[in-house]
Design a protein that fits this description.
Layout (H helix, E strand, L loop, with lengths): L6 H35 L4 H10 L3 H37 L6 H21 L8 H31 L8 H25 L5 E2 L9 E9 L2 E8 H23 L1 H11 L1 H6 L4 H27 L1 E2 L5 H14 L4 H25 L11 H13 L14
Antiparallel strand pairs: 1-4, 2-3
């Protein structure tokens, strides 16, 4: 009897867990050190005086006291971006093509999952249920959202991308933008004829909004309460499961080997008996499944969605993929965590450090600034492009 868990199999399961741990600790430590150093250097300045007037503590103390919660929030947002970035990475790894319609695949997943839960709530299925029942319905909604989003991605590939596969690269790119607008308007149309509403709110059930106390301690005379919402834990756990599963699928299975073969050389893979069209469709299916799950997790985290809900998360996830090294699964995780933490740090500290001149609304500029800098100074990303090795 063959051993199910060989050394190579276990390596593909535990290696991404180790990488995620290193990325979380490393990114958090570097950004924390940078912001604390900046706060230390600003001692005795007008910024420090303004902070003491507003909060009754020094700038350095304010920064230190809020730092643990900022890190927790940044990690959560980073995992959301990382999950979305995996969809871009899967498609680019095989076709070297940026699927800009992936943002709308996210929106499809978000709307399918939320509408299903709203329907269940209207039927009374989400009322008075135990905690495990709430999780069961959430998992069910995520599976349905992933399935519909995955099928949508396959249909898009078959109708809008496959006929243009041998065309100049600009042509499928324009097609992707067209598909993006089409899916946005299709969501708006379906919502208008079914519910008459463009804005949908994630229904309240279960204990997802409950906060879990993680730690309580005193820092420089100020009490620090560190907590995390249950839905943030769900986002983190779901992302880790998807990353480990995708890494195992790509690197330790027969179909994963076929995906990597097509990514490396489509013509040679075809000569070796691999059905290239099926593998490419499978790649879009996987990207869509991840996008659908990410869409529902985004809705769970931020509560309200609209037909354009995938645009900014998709743009930021694309930036994360480029930052980490698009085509590289590991790079997508690193890029997502860096971008998520940077955004949260900016949203929490930018107003304080600039004395109100720049508020949290400026945090979105980071995504564009990072994208520009990466494209100028290191187009291959932090971990480099590995299209021939991973999808």
């Amino acid at each position: 009897m063959r051993r199910i868990f060989t050394a190579a199999t276990l390596r593909e399961i535990f290696r991404p867990l180790g990488q995620i741990t290193i990325f979380v600790v490393g990114t958090g430590a570097i950004l924390s050190a940078a912001v604390l150093l900046l706060a230390f250097l600003l001692r005795g300045t007008a910024v420090d005086a303004q902070t003491q007037a507003n909060y009754g503590i020094s700038l350095f103390t304010y920064t230190l006291v809020n730092l643990p919660q900022v890190l927790v929030d940044g990690i959560t947002i980073g995992f959301v971006y990382a999950t979305i970035a995996l969809g871009y990475t899967m498609v680019y790894g095989v076709l070297e093509f940026i699927n800009f319609a992936h943002s709308e695949i996210i929106a499809v997943g978000a709307f399918v999952g939320v509408e299903l839960l709203i329907w269940l709530s209207g039927k009374g299925s989400l009322t008075g249920i135990p905690v495990w029942g709430a999780y069961a319905w959430l998992i069910f909604a995520m599976l349905v959202a992933s399935a519909i989003a995955g099928l949508t991605a396959v249909v898009v590939e078959r109708t809008a991308y496959r006929p243009l596969r041998n065309a100049p690269r600009l042509v499928p790119l324009i097609s992707a933008i067209g598909v993006s607008f089409f899916l946005q308007d299709m969501i708006r149309f379906l919502e208008s004829v079914t519910t008459g509403q463009f804005y949908r709110v994630f229904p309240t059930f279960g204990n997802f909004d409950q906060r879990i106390a993680m730690a309580s301690f005193t820092a420089m005379g100020s009490k620090v309460e560190l907590n995390i919402q249950v839905k943030s834990v769900i986002v983190i756990v779901a992302t880790i499961v998807m990353v480990v599963g995708l890494n195992y699928l790509v690197n330790a299975t027969k179909i994963g080997k076929a995906v990597r073969s097509v990514a490396q050389d489509r013509a040679t893979a075809s000569l070796m008996g691999i059905n290239v069209n099926k593998i490419i469709s499978f790649t879009f299916l996987m990207g869509g499944l991840l996008g659908g799950a990410a869409g529902l997790m985004y809705a769970l985290k931020f509560t309200r969605i609209d037909p354009f809900v995938g645009f900014f998360p998709g743009l930021k996830a694309f930036t994360a993929a480029v930052l980490g090294g698009i085509g590289n699964i590991t790079g997508a995780i690193l890029g997502g965590l860096i971008l998520g933490m940077l955004e949260t740090f900016a949203g929490s500290y930018l107003s304080v450090f600039t004395m109100g001149a720049m508020g949290a609304e400026y945090k979105d500029i980071l995504a564009f600034a990072i994208l520009i800098m990466v494209l100028i100074f290191k187009p291959s990303g932090l971990l480099g492009e590995q299209v021939g090795q991973k999808a």
